[in-house]
């Protein structure tokens, strides 16, 4: 149960400054870039960490972008936690060559660094502290007390967003998805990120980023929406979440429930009254002729499984034994969906959604900080469907329960 308070206690760790950190600035002109950075461009991309065949893929992509971020540019990070031996050295080098780094991490109930799960965040905090002691400005770290833009209590800063004011010759690059940047996640969890260079999206995400840095709930419902040509995005928390304002239910209502509609979902957690109304809506769509495949993650409620199974959806196991003692399970950590349908004009439509929003009304869902992007193109649909294929093909499909998080990690996250 979330405790409603008239004031949210804010602990803003900005390493010596209590003022709100300034917004990210643009980087120097291309004439100031080293040759390798000047030649590098970012194109749309989508990658999946596959713990069984392609571990660390997203972390390596992040490392490439960080290495091509020039002096004077800004990297903005919103991440539940960060503990990657691939990403951290690149971040350290970037800071030392003059890149500004601004990060927001989940700091637990007390809003303090969580060394047990976010070692990279702790090291980044210390690196920036040392830089500020020498007069370096422009970088900061915030450890949120529970959610950043929501209420105090059993909530989290759960978003997974990386932004680069410049990468090589490309400005305003945004990565959004379900990937927690850590070696442990690389070893166990399927999770995807999409990369786009959309200036309007970059600016809208930055608005939410700056609001999140204040670590307090804004007036009214903190849910936000944004849209542009071929994309839209939503930002949680939603206080309250209702059938009228649920962006996922709105998405499903826009897709025709009839033969020819095909949907694929991979979902880590699907719970609560919100999860129930989404499951019932999808069940009605299947009963009307739509085809649905769901990769059932380790925290999907049995009632959701029952609703979808009885409607005739295809259910795939999202948790598998690996045979490794230290990491006995691989599992989907995705919160992803694809859909294709024929609209009223006879045109085939394609869409894909990636983000951090688990389909529930609890701490991993609508009451916590989340960012999800929708992309409306055949490229996005086909690419995500290809990345999800190994999960769909995994056997056996007995939907057996697994507890993927080590007890040490669970204890820190719940403390």
UniProtKB/TrEMBL annotation:
Boundaries of every Phospholipase D-like domain copy: 74-211
Keyword entries, A-Z: Signal
Stretch forming the signal peptide: 1-19
Gene3D superfamilies associated with the record: Endonuclease Chain A
Keyword Signal (UniProt): yes
Top-level taxon: Bacteria
InterPro entries attached to this UniProt entry: PLD-like_dom
Presence of keyword Amino-acid biosynthesis: no
Any coiled-coil regions, as ranges: none
Stated name of the protein: Phospholipase D-like domain-containing protein
Organism: Nocardioides immobilis
